[in-house]
C-alpha cells in the first residue's frame, strides 16, 4: 500500500495543480494521500471536489503544513485529518497568511539591500494566487538573472541563516499544534532532521512538540538514508509517538522526492494512519 502524507500543489510552492497531483497519485496507485500545502488548505479543498468525480481516487486526507518557530528556528508541523472549517484552525491559517505577507515585505527589503530590486512585486507575480514563500523569491532571482539557479538563491540569500531567512513573523510551536488538535486532526513533526539540530536539541524539540499535543514524527521524509530513518524511528519509540511517511513532493527532479515514493516504515514504528480506519 502506497502512502504519501506530505505533498505540495500550486496552492503553495508545488508545480502541479491539486487536480494534476491527485490524478498523478491515482495513476501511481497511491492508496492514501494528504495534500499538505504551506499554511493553506485551498489546494486540498479543490482536490477533494475533484476526487468526488473520479472513478478510483486515492483516499484523500485533509492536510496542511504549518509554519512556526521554536528555539530560534523555523519549524514545520503537518496537520492531518483536520476539519478545515474549524474556527481555531481557520483563524490560525488567516494569521499565517498575514505573517507570510508581512514576511515577504521584509524579505524583499533585505534582498533590495543586497542589490536585488523589485522582489516583492516579482515574487507576488510569480506566486499569483498561491501562498507566497521563499521559492517564489528564488524564482524571481533566477528569472531576473540575479542568480543562476534556485539552489544558489537558497544557498546565498534565502536558506537558513541567510539574509532572506526571516523568522520573526511565525507563531510559536506551542500555539500552532493546538490549532490542529482543536480541528480534530493529528500533528506530525515534519522532516525532523532538516533543522540540522544536535541530538540533544532535537530531543528538546520533540519533547516540546509532544507537550503541545503532537502525536507523530515524520519518520520518512523525501530522500533520506537508512541511518536517518533508523534515528527517527528510535525517537518515536523513546517518546512513544506514532510515525508518518511523506515524499514532500514539490516538482519533478528537484527538492523533495517523487510523489508516492516513500519506502516502508521500520517495524518498530506505529503508523499514524493505522488509527484512522
Ligand atoms: P517558506 O515556506 O516560504 O519558508 O519556504 C520554504 C520552502 O522553500 C521549502 O518548503 C522548500 O519548498 C523550499 N526550499 C527550501 N530550501 C530549498 C533549497 N535549498 N532549494 C530549493 N528549495 C528549497
Ligand atoms: Mn515547500
Ligand atoms: Mn517543510
Ligand atoms: Mn513540505
Description of the structure:
It is a single chain. This protein has 277 residues and is α/β, with parallel strands linked by helices. The chain has a domain at 2-84 and 184-275: Metal-dependent hydrolases (TIM Barrel, Alpha-Beta Barrel), CATH 3.20.20.140. It has helices at residues 18-27, 42-51, 87-113, 119-127, 134-143, 150-158, 173-182, 199-211, 226-239, and strands spanning 2-4, 30-34, 59-61, 63-70, 73-80, 186-189, 216-221, 242-246. Strands 4-5-6-7-8 form a five-stranded mixed sheet. α1 crosses α2. The longest helix is centred in the middle third of the chain and has 27 residues, at 87-113. The radius of gyration is 18 Å and the shape is globular. The protein starts with a strand and ends in a 31-residue tail after the last strand. One manganese (II) ion (MN) binds at residues 8, 13, 38, 250.
Succession of helices and strands: EHEHEEEHHHHHEHEHE
- Count of helical regions: 9
**Which fold name corresponds to the CATH topology of the domain at 2-84 and 184-275?**
TIM Barrel
Corresponding CATH architecture of the domain at 2-84 and 184-275: Alpha-Beta Barrel
**What is the CATH superfamily of the domain at 2-84 and 184-275?**
Metal-dependent hydrolases
Radius of gyration: 18 Å
Strand order of the largest sheet: 4-5-6-7-8
Quaternary status: single chain
Please give the share of residues in helix: 40-55%
Say which molecules are bound, naming each kind only once.
Answer: adenosine monophosphate, manganese (II) ion
Sheet-strand content, in percent, reads: 15-25%
